[in-house]
Amino acid sequence: MEQQNYILIEPIATLSSNKDKTLELNWISWNDRPAKVDLRRWGTNEQGERVPFKGLSLTDAEIEALKAVLPTL
Fold this sequence. Notes:
The protein is mainly beta. It is built from 1 helix and 4 strands, in the order E-E-E-E-H.
């Protein structure tokens, strides 16, 4: 599996916390690409380092579409 590198540009919110995992919304740049809003669970490995789990990265257009839909729920 290819190593993923990331740069946390700005934390936005921690939406939940469960034992050693958190669900976070952040601005993140993955593999030297432009930063996107990123929603995913994070944990820690045996060395105490943060580890990303599967998540979702959204473009600005996708964020705008989501903001339009959320009030209808």
